Amino acid sequence: MRIKKDAADRVRTWMDLNPEHRYELLTDGGAETYVKNNFADDSRIVDTYIALGDFILRADLIRYLALLKDGGVYNDLDVGCNVPIDQWIPPRFKDDTSVVVGIEADNNLGKGGTKLFGFVNWTIMARRDQPFMRYLIDRVLHNLHQAASKHNETLGELRLYRQEVLDVTGPGALTQTVFRYLSEQTQTTVTAQNFTKMKEPRLIKGILVLPINAFGAGHQVRWSGAEEDGSALVHHYFAGSWKGSHPEGPSEEEKKEAEEKKKEEEKNKKEEEEKKKKEEEKTKQQEDEKKKKQEEQEGKQR
Which residue, 190, 21, 25, 69, is CA-closest to 119? Predict the structure, then answer.
């Protein structure tokens, strides 16, 4: 497969800084073959992946599958390497780390000043066959089928709004699954508060969380209140094109109006059904009375 020069230049950064590692590029066709060959004993995974018609949903799912099966480092094609992979994990954590994630957003710039926090999914590191990756895949499969049901579409037809993509298969799904998994593993409630504004790597139950400087983009580092100190392990160039084919979707106000309209339609439908039922019962009652009178008259005539 031929790729554009800027993408090839980014690929070269991984190969040059990590000569002892094997670099593999998964194409759409190659990814489908990979899933069929490596997950033949799990029809749910194979059937879901093959059925998906949206390339970005496939792209999110394949990264988790590859990390479960082979381990290593996954990167989007628009991510360059700044520091050799072998230097990413501090020596004191190396023996106990199974998965490495980094913070993407950590600020109060959400609507109305709400908290925004999330982990990057353009770069993820994992040992092969880790329970968390299996847990994440199970969650993403659940999200996909739930979304298809919600939109009354098949997986092949499923086209999600931008935020839905992030929450169903993307970084939002990864973030919420990390919280859920660690909450179960620690028997506590793990949320963004466990990691916000952290300046040093933090290891919990095999998952190593790196500060925002490690994988986060420069503007997100600044928005978090941290300083760009030259410690970035990767550089994300934001060259992906998926957002252009996925609209932002309705605003919160529009969603509320649509929900109210739906409720009103359901109410009207229910009222119509009840009215129809009463009319049918009334008609039946009238027919029964008419039939009874006819039978009485026939009895008298006899």
Answer: 190
Q: Which strand (E) or helix (H) includes residue 159?
A: none
Total Cβ atoms within 10 A of residue 278: 10
At residue 205, what is the residue type?
Answer: K
Return the structure tokens found at 255. 């969603």
CB atoms within 10 A of CB 133: 23
pLDDT in tens, 178-226: 999 999 999 999 999 999 999 999 999 999 999 999 999 999 999 999 9
- What are the tokens at 162? 């931008």
3-state secondary structure of 77: coil
Residue 82, pLDDT > 80, answer: yes
Give the integer Cα–Cα distance in Å for 162 and 175: 16
Q: For 295, phi and psi rounded to 5 degrees?
A: -65, -40
* Dist CA 97 CA 136 (whole Å): 17
> Under a CB-based contact definition with an 8 Å cutoff, are residues 55 and 156 in contact?
no
Q: Among residues of the chain, what percentage have pLDDT more than 70?
A: 96
225: nearest Cα among 197, 258, 189? 197
Distances (CA, A) of 201 to 100, 195, 220, 236, 271: 10, 9, 18, 20, 59
What pTM does this model have? 0.83
In whole angstroms, give the CA distance from residue 152 to residue 168. 16
**pLDDT bracket for residue 30 (50, 70, 90):** very high
The H or E element containing residue 124 is strand 123-126
Q: How confident is the model at residue 300 (pLDDT cuts 50, 70, 90)?
A: low
Distance, CA of 90 to CA of 153 (rounded, Å) = 46
Q: Which residues pair with 283 in a beta bridge?
A: none
What confidence score (pLDDT) does residue 297 get? 76
Q: How far apart are CA 65 and CA 63, in angstroms?
A: 5
Closest by alpha carbon to 15, among 63, 81, 65?
Answer: 81
